[in-house]
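hiii, so i know i said id send this last week but things got crazy w the move. better late than never?? heres the sequnce for the chain we talked about at the cafe, plus the structure i predicted for it. fair warning i was half asleep when i ran it
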Amino acid sequence: MIFRRGVMFASLLFFGFSLWGAQAAANPAQKAAARKSRPEWQPLPFPESGTLPKNYKGLDAKRVWHLFKSKEASLKKGEYETTLDYQKRLETADLLPLVRESSYAFSLKDVTTSYDADAQQYSFSDYLFCKKTYDTGDDAGWFTCKIDTVDSEHSTYIGTNSFGASAVIDKSTGKDFAIAVRPDSPFFKSVLFQGDPYNSYKSSYELKTTLPLPIEHAKALQGLTIGVLLVGKFAASTLIEGRPTLISPTLNDPIDIFVMEDAAPFDPQEVVFYVVETGEILARTSIN
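okay and structure toks below
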């Protein structure tokens, strides 16, 4: 009886491993088929009029970043290519599935709103961190404004200073995606004002636009989210290298941060205020 149970158990065990092996063998093919059947990314241009889809969030920054990175190899300057020919090629290089002639929107993160009943208008508290690129090199002469973090890693380690004191250090590394805007763009004059004049990189900018809205309309929007979109066109097909965010750890502040930044050249055209949950567009402010 014991032997029979052993045979039965062994048979079941063998059958289970055989079944698992068959499923495991099928997994790569199934995954490949799933990837093939997955719809391709089809970013829609920002509509010229009408309402937006419900819960509209604009372009996915991570997808845009991956798209630009995928174009890098084909956009490198050839050994026998003149600088003039190379620049002409960059000007006409495509960004498919993005269309260079079309306008697209990025959602500004962490926007807080407050309503002034006397003035009957919304005001916004949102900071964009815009840093000037290095003064020399191919990427000089831009300001990069962070849109979102597209890659990050976190870990800890034991750090020791020259006096032998040690602490547990929280380490963060990653990559930010930003838009790159020329410093003479009206974007910095009509939409933003400098929020921290003492910052050496002139990196803190705040929205200075307001949204007039009658009280009754504002009451109807209670509990809903007022979103802010930055709408514009991509100005080039290559990424700009922004200044990294670098924070060295100390005993009092044991944080080690090194985040690099890639920025897509972008020509901002308007700021759009809308109701995220319904897609209702409340106002469109041109940048000029």
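btw The longest strand covers residues 255-275. thought thatd interest u
miss u guys!!
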